[in-house]
Design a protein that fits this description.
Elements (H helix, E strand, L loop, with lengths): L3 H11 L6 H43 L2 E5 L7 H9 L4 E15 L5 E9 L1 H5 L2 H4 L2 E4 L9 E5 H7 L6 E12 L2 E15 L4 H4 L2 E5 H7 L8 E6 L5 H12 L4 E5 H4 L1 H39 L1 H9 L4 H32 L1 H12 L6 H4 L10 H27 L3 H7 L1
Parallel strand pairs: 3-8, 5-7
Antiparallel strand pairs: 1-9, 1-10, 2-3, 2-6, 2-9, 4-7, 5-8, 6-7
Helix pairs in contact: 1-13, 2-11, 2-13, 2-16, 11-13, 11-16, 12-17, 13-16
Length: 416
Amino acid sequence: MFGAFERAVAGRYLRARKGERAVSLIAGASLLGIALGVGTLIVVLSVMGGFRQELLGRILALNGHLGVVTEGAPLTDYQEAAARIRAIPGVTLATPVVEGQVLVTTDAGASAGGLLRGMAPEELRARPIIAGNIRAGSLAEFGARDSIAIGTVLARRLDVRAGDRITLVSPEGRVTVFGTVPRVASYRVAAIFEVGMQDYDGSFIFLPLEAAQLFLQRRGVASQIEVHLTDPAAAWTVGGAIRAALAPQRVTLLDWQRANAGFFQIVEVQRNVMFLILALIILVAAFNIVSSLIMLVKDKGRDIAILRSMGARRGAVMRIFLLCGAAIGGLGTAAGVALGLLFCANIEAIRQGLISVTGTVIFDPEIYFLTRIPAVVDPWEVAQVAGLGLGLSLVATLFPSWRAARLDPVEALRHE
């Protein structure tokens, strides 16, 4: 598309000479603006994508893809129901769970609220997000009636360690001749886990299923059956099979998309808004290319007239200035892609460095739920951002290039 002559002239025009520093400065600012815009956009999209992926992975790993709840009657035959569900293709786990809100206290007077979840010890050990993230103690000790597993955030709030004892208080008290008395029981901390989400590490408490049923006064009853699937997108299809397997008992299915719809919609809206805002940075830099090329055309009016007089066609002149703008946009986009990928690869180290220098908290886990900044680079998104940078740069060169090609050599030489 571009001949050797056009490349040579364009390269000559891009190298500033004495008296042409202003044009070179604007071109450099355009290149820097495109690089920063492209790099920032890649970083933001990668962080937002990583944020969604990390949250989705941790939420589903802990809560399952489907929750099965019976209608009209408590779930008493939960073991048989779980066995039927496990036999359905696409199901990896079916775990009976009993849940209840509790107050956690210690002998030292510390207290905190929590969500008590009772499940069979072997089921808890089968969950990698818990079993693979034990920070103190061991799940091998989780099984005795007085054993309990809590998160690291809750352990810090209560100032307890593995082996210490904590007390659970249930709001569903037992009825006595003196009235309703809160149910209180003491348990030994067998394991302390860290899921990596502030919400879960600070509130989830695990007990063996039978011990939890006894404490919550729900003997022989499960709150729901948590179902894990090989393909989360097949939740509705598997849900139909679960209804058929448990018929004639009527059940309600709580799928992960509906349960977390509001949260992930907010993340998606934020992602789209940030994309539009940061795309404007690239657009502003593209307008700088227009300014620099218009100034270049004005400065090179005599050169263009001489080239036209020597036989250069309008198309050749237009391609020369197109090549100038494309070079600025291409170099800026390439630098931006490299900057964005480098930043994503070292984002956590950069965050820790900024924290140590400024002394301020960056990416507070209590606000963002995660303990570290996730960044997942999507090659397709990187290609889209690079295409956006190149596309806007090329569009920005059209008018100045067309104006240069339309320059009348006679008028240009007469004015010179």
